[in-house]
Amino acid sequence: MTAQIKILIEGYARKTGDEEFASSTTVLIKEKGVNIIVDPGMDRKKLQDALLKERMEPNNINYVILTHYHLDHTLLAGIFENAQIIDFEGIYSWDGKIKNHGGMVPGTDVKIIKTPGHDPFHCVVLTKTNNWGSVVIAADVFWWQDDEEQKTDEESLMTHEDPYMKNKEELTESRKKILGIADYIIPGHGKMFKIKK
């Protein structure tokens, strides 16, 4: 059984005067009766409206995956009180329990892949779908400011500057890894795009 995915919020990042506005792309994955949110972001109203549109509530979510710890991706994780939280290596429960996930979301075929570079503890999510083949929810391995042109040819993707990058060599390797496995990529901020092969 393949996953169903829905982009609930297309991530954005922009400056208006002295203020910055940002929230990550938020994705809903449904597979084998398991409901997963990837990066709940920090735009509460947009998230609540998107869930209502899907006829879902926060308590319908089984897992929340945090691709990394930047607040524009994680701030709203606490509204999912029934969900367990997943990061690059563990599953966290509200009773203080932590266990290793071994690279998979329990009860599904959804994979968690470590992709350091933008952040040392960064991961991406790989799903198999009927409509798009292998989809990588890439978070900030690839992302764009709202006023940037989103170039998706391989050279542009590999050389795209990331002002928040922590390790250039690791980010380059993570980008290569993703481009080798994805048919489509959902970036942390910007539009979903197809990989040209």
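^ that was protein a. below is b, sequence first then the tokens
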Amino acid sequence: MTEMEEGRGFEHPLGTYIQLDLRHLGAKKILERLPGIRSICIDFIGIDPVKEPIPIMPSQHYSMGGIDVNEKGASKIEGFYAAGECACVSVHGANRLGGNSLLDTIVFGKLAAKDIENNLAKTKLKPKEKPLQKLIVKVENKINRLAQSGGERPYKLAADLGAIMSEKVGVFRTKKELVQALDEVIKIKKRYKNVSISSTDKHMNYELHNALELEYMLEVAHTIVLGALLREESRGAHFRRDFTTRNDKKWLKHTIAKMGKKGEPLISYKEVKITNYQPMERKY
């Protein structure tokens, strides 16, 4: 990021990038040690790392955190479970160890399945159809509203949102940038109320899919920006240039977000449960 900010990057229609040059390794070593990376470069961008540098730019790998659940995958909402990357069981700290996503899914998916089975055996509750029918009507009304004429296209809003999050809410953040990002995200949420699509056909309609998904992307972006703005420290991949040190005394706690009545995220905090291992700052 610093290289790009200081003007040593290369411009591309998709953004600014730097070059990763592996040519000094030689063809033999690249073919032996990095055959997968070479294949990806050739297949997706038409570049052979044996002969050319690889263009590198920042990109979201995954979202840290997730739905707040316990060790059995159960959320605060009775009967609602989550496991895997969508969930936050809180075993990874401020960042997840590389390669642990599948392990996370297998371990807590199994524990969630067992707990669901046990609860179903004990419960006397019967499924209620009326709330589901109301939800179906609500979603259908939302889809029909998207067919309004003269509104903004979802791809334009998604592009604007992506640009703001990349420029203002990257790994390195400042209060000024986060305040600007928060203002812009709220503006895009207001613009979304006037979004429209060309067809509401439900078969293979990617425009409809993207328009519905965009609403949730905006909620997640709003939550990320607000949470980052309030957390005045640096931890994991959250680095505040105006608060460069980790502050366990004030910020060793989970950020919890709930949906407010007006559609805004409400931020609260929860203490971290520490068992066998004391949290330590990563030095590498």
